[in-house]
């Protein structure tokens, strides 16, 4: 079921300038920037967004498509955030996963790295780049995930070492899923410019799990796992699905609520249907929103609960 929920509930942007002044007054963190992954262009003309997210499959990279995407984002005043997914070259993109990271370290994917990073480096504006996201997930979704942490670290470092000279303005991000062992995959301060987090909030799943936590509760648990690294933090994938009242409650002023958490730089909404099948009977939740005018944060925050 497609959600037509107002993004004003997420952004509180009608009061953006006032909130920035409030942040200075009460020493809270600045209001994070707002971004979106929006492949269906449902929010293309919304000027509230300053970040545009896209996913690149490195074995199937199309430079012309990326160039067009980046140019379009620039015209609309949006900085580009890229998640590079290092799939294998097998027809199903997964076979050979046991050797994938070793092959990356040995340079067998340097052609893919070069092709993507040349396009990233051609941008006048700095591009945010995440590589090998959710490397700590254990469900078999990604061929680079749930592998030896030290091997992942070396593969991530190889990507950055190859990419940084080609795209010197790029900022590189490490984006775990949030499992208990995520810290073991951290590739080192010299290789991480920001940390990405992921939060998908499905009402039916929460009911089944007896999980009544708020957005702030859930984000706080993730934030606590990475805050000690001292890096800027970006909620790179965020989605909510459920009844209209539930979505309104969870989205309402979410951007503003992140001010209580140190180092949070941006919130990026995942405006698409889920690409992964959740456990039955939840299927593929639809996180999409299309109209930011219906709901709003009709008050200023001078302090946070």
From TrEMBL:
Residue stretches making up the GH26 domain: 1-292
Entry-linked InterPro entries: GH, GH26_dom, Glyco_hydro_26
A Pfam match: Glyco_hydro_26
Keywords, sorted A to Z: Glycosidase, Hydrolase, Signal
Any one GO molecular-function label of the UniProt entry: hydrolase activity
Signal peptide region: 1-25
Active-site residues, Swiss-Prot/TrEMBL: 134 (proton donor), 237 (nucleophile)
Family: Belongs to the glycosyl hydrolase 26 family.
Protein name: Glycosyl hydrolase
Organism per entry: Microvirga terrae
């Amino acid at each position: 079921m497609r959600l037509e929920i107002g993004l004003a509930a997420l952004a509180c942007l009608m009061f953006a300038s006032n909130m920035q002044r409030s942040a200075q007054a009460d020493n809270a963190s600045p209001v994070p920037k707002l971004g979106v992954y929006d492949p269906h262009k449902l929010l293309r003309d919304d000027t509230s967004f300053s970040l545009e997210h896209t996913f690149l499959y490195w074995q199937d990279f199309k430079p012309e498509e990326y160039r067009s995407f980046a140019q379009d984002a620039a015209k609309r005043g949006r900085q580009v955030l890229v998640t590079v997914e290092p799939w294998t070259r097998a027809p199903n993109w997964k076979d050979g996963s046991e050797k994938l990271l070793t092959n990356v370290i040995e340079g067998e994917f340097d052609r893919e790295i070069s092709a993507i990073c040349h396009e990233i480096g051609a941008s006048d504006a700095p591009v945010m780049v995440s590589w090998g996201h959710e490397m700590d997930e254990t469900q078999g979704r990604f061929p680079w995930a749930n592998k030896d942490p030290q091997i992942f670290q070396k593969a991530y470092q190889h990507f950055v070492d190859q990419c940084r000279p080609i795209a010197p303005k790029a900022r590189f991000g490490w984006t775990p899923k949030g499992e208990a062992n995520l810290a073991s995959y951290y590739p080192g301060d010299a290789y991480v410019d920001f940390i990405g987090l992921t939060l998908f909030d499905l009402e039916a799943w929460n009911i089944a799990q007896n999980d009544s936590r708020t957005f702030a509760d859930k984000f706080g648990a993730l934030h606590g796992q990475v805050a000690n690294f001292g890096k800027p933090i970006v909620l790179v994938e965020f989605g909510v699905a459920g009844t209209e009242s539930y979505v309104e409650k969870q989205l309402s002023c979410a951007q503003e609520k992140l001010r209580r958490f140190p180092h949070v730089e941006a919130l990026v909404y995942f405006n698409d249907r889920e690409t992964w099948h959740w456990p039955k009977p939840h299927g593929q939740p639809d996180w999409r929103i299309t109209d930011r005018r219906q709901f709003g944060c009709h008050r200023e925050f001078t302090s946070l609960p």
